[in-house]
Design brief:
This protein is mostly helical and about 300 residues long. It is built from 8 helices and 2 strands. A two-stranded parallel sheet has the order 1-2.
């Protein structure tokens, strides 16, 4: 539009003043109903003090604070649960080792007895085969006794441990394996193992709950924005508010004529910034359209920091 006319009212803030004074292509007029110049100046300064930047920045900062507080709470809960998991795992490991230790000793002793008896049986059978006529009968009795003794030992070891060691070299791993199986069936071991498994399940449930809670809170306070975007916007809005306060202080310090000129310069600066932002947005949309990813947004026509403000 060639000319813009804006009426100063209690509902108009700094953003509205800037938009109204930069909308026109040729002229921009701000209409103030006032008793005199000083009254008009006071109304104008009051409007500038109603800048939404501080309020919007505060909303983003509150959103960030809420997310940080939730993150700290979740981290403390996760650390506590991880300690519980580690303690349960350590207890389960310790109890199993305590239960398995004597079993390994007994299995080792039984394995040695089995292997010793087997060796004695082989020796007796060899001696019977090489015995002379006079000693053949005695050697035969000794071999029979060795076989019977070995079979008895073999049956006892198999019943007790479920298997037999293959030789001296495999005795240790065999003893640890068979003793471990029996230890795993011990009520003390099963109880502590179930406690550890429960601790692991609770950790998984806690992680799922944290994910749900963080997703809900993020959608509530940020909408479609990300935490990094929220921090950037909050910082930008704070900077804008600080600049507005500096501009306001400058306007208040200047004589009326110079203040009017300064306001015009501010309006020109705001218009230039808006034009740059619009060109950048148009360029982004053009690139997106070329890639087939462009989706029109329903809020393109809106201006000001409230466009993407979070809801708290």
């Amino acid at each position: 539009m060639p000319a813009s006319h804006t009426v100063l009212s209690d509902a108009l803030d700094a953003s509205g003043v800037y938009v109204g004074m930069t909308r026109g292509q040729e002229t921009n007029r701000l209409h103030v109903v006032a008793a005199d110049v000083d009254d008009a100046r006071e109304q104008f300064v009051t409007a500038l003090e109603r800048d939404r930047a501080d309020r919007e920045a505060e909303k983003w900062e509150q959103a960030i604070t809420a997310l940080d507080r939730q993150r700290d709470t979740h981290r403390a809960e996760s650390d506590e649960q991880q300690d519980a998991v580690a303690a349960a795992d350590a207890r389960a490991t310790r109890v199993r080792a305590e239960v398995a230790a004597p079993l390994i000793g007994w299995a080792t002793a039984d394995g040695i007895a089995y292997l010793t008896g087997r060796e004695r049986m082989w020796e007796a059978q060899t001696a019977r085969g090489s015995a002379g006529r006079l000693r053949r009968r005695a050697a035969g009795r000794a071999a029979t006794e060795a076989v019977d003794e070995h079979r008895a030992t073999e049956d006892a070891v198999r019943r007790r441990w479920g298997s037999l060691p293959t030789g001296a070299g495999g005795l240790k791993p065999w003893a640890e394996t068979v003793a471990g199986k029996q230890a795993d069936a011990d009520p003390r071991v099963t109880e502590t193992r179930q406690e550890a498994e429960q601790a692991h399940r609770e950790r998984g449930s806690l992680a799922e709950r944290h994910l749900r809670e963080s997703t809900v809170l993020r959608r509530k306070v940020l909408g479609s924005a990300t935490p990094s975007t929220a921090r950037t916007r909050a910082a930008g809005l704070r900077a804008r508010a600080e600049q507005a306060r500096r501009d306001l202080a400058q306007i208040e310090a200047l004589p009326v004529t110079e203040a009017v000129q300064y306001v015009r310069e501010l309006a020109a600066r705001a218009r230039a910034e808006r034009e740059i932002a619009e060109r950048a947005r148009a360029a982004r949309e053009a690139r997106a359209a070329q890639l087939g990813r462009f989706r029109p947004s329903s809020d393109h026509g809106r201006t000001g920091p409230e466009r993407d403000a979070p809801g708290l």
